[in-house]
Design brief:
CATH topology of one domain: Arc Repressor Mutant, subunit A
Helix content: 55-70%
Largest sheet: none
Number of helices: 6
CATH class of one domain: Mainly Alpha
Radius of gyration: 16 Å
Distance between the termini: 50 Å
Number of strands: 0
Order of helices and strands: HHHHHH
Structural class: mainly alpha
Length: about 110
């Protein structure tokens, strides 16, 4: 099994996975499992993974911090953030954090 990944890669990935808590494991395996018949714009258009990215952006985390928390590459987070901006018609993280905060407090 490990030969296809390269020398030591299996052990490295196994060790990283072993460090995940139950919530992180559920998040990892359920990623991209959301309903596929979503609108193309607006809050309802966000995937479950994009919504998690929004939460973490609203907490003030950087892309590298989000990547580490979600067990994905930094570039993947960057792509998610750009998709979120496009879907919500936003242009920066401050606008996104403000919108997420308004939604979570019911002021939208």
């Amino acid at each position: 099994m490990g030969d296809a990944l390269g020398d030591g890669a299996t052990d490295e990935y196994w060790a990283e996975g072993s460090e995940l808590g139950p919530d992180e494991v559920v998040e990892y395996v359920s990623r991209a499992r959301g309903e596929r018949k979503r609108p193309s714009v607006g809050w309802a258009s966000l995937t479950p993974t994009e919504r998690r990215v929004v939460e973490l952006v609203a907490e003030g985390l950087t892309n590298p911090q989000i990547a580490e928390r979600m067990f994905v590459a930094r570039g993947t987070v960057k792509v998610h953030v750009s998709h979120i901006f496009a879907k919500l018609g936003l242009s920066n993280r401050s606008e996104l954090a403000a919108l997420a905060t308004r939604r979570s407090t019911g002021r939208i």
